[in-house]
Amino acid sequence: LASLDAHPQPSVVDVGGVPVGGGQLAMIAGPCAVEEPDRMLRIAKAVKAAGANIFRGGAYKPRTSPYSFQGLGEEGLKILRDVGDACGMPIVTEVTDPRNVETVAKYADLLQIGARNMQNFVLLTEAGQANKPVLLKRGMSATIVDWLMSAEYVLAQGNPNVILCERGIKSFDPSTRNLFDVAAVPVVKGLSHLPVIVDPSHATGKPALIPPCALAGVAAGADGVHIEVHDEPEVAKSDGPQALLPDQYAEVAQQIRQLAALL
Ligand code: PEP
Ligand code: MN
Q1: Which of 8, 65, 132, 146 could bond 142 through an S-S bridge, CB–CB 3.0 to 4.6 Å?
Q2: Where along the sequence do coiled-coil regions lie (predicted)?
């Protein structure tokens, strides 16, 4: 179902009224984790003014350590929904557990399946049955064919609305958090009609590397860019070291628009 043979035209996925794919860019921005409501509102207003069209934040955080902040749970979903509504932006948030799909789908416009859960087939099946589009991140050790097969699990449930996200894969080199596989974008485009976006935040883990990798992704044909933004990265509850400040986001968002206009 994901293949170009099944569907030769690029798919356009509607995310709460924002079309993604077929030349229309998803500009997803927001903090790694949902935090206090006033901070969320401040960040959302700033990224919206900078050109973001979908607001992100994790309420259920898949942390490497069980002792790290795990997210605000349903309280976080409510905050995210209220902030999205107040700013007129659809919201995306991660669902980590098949038992929470229904709850997350009640609040979110787009369900994110994280890299660590890309092959959680029970979760993919549940997400495929929810009436919401799915943002499927590439697993850190997944081949492109593995990734498309995971998309297939969602599509096979009758949910045609899947957006793929390249977020970097494991490598031997600690110079970047992950290895940004920019070639994955044209490889996927050669195999599938599904929109594919890039996440240079998790791919590189370093603010200075986010703008060049965001632009490389768009130049390679990505249908959008997913970037973590925080107004005080030093106190962020999660992924602070890779967050862009709102002003830095505004600059890269403008560069992305200028580049996209040339393509
Ligand atoms: C995230 O988007 O905050 C996240 C945890 O991403 P990934 O699953 O790509 O690590
Ligand atoms: Mn993160």
Answers
A1: 146
A2: none
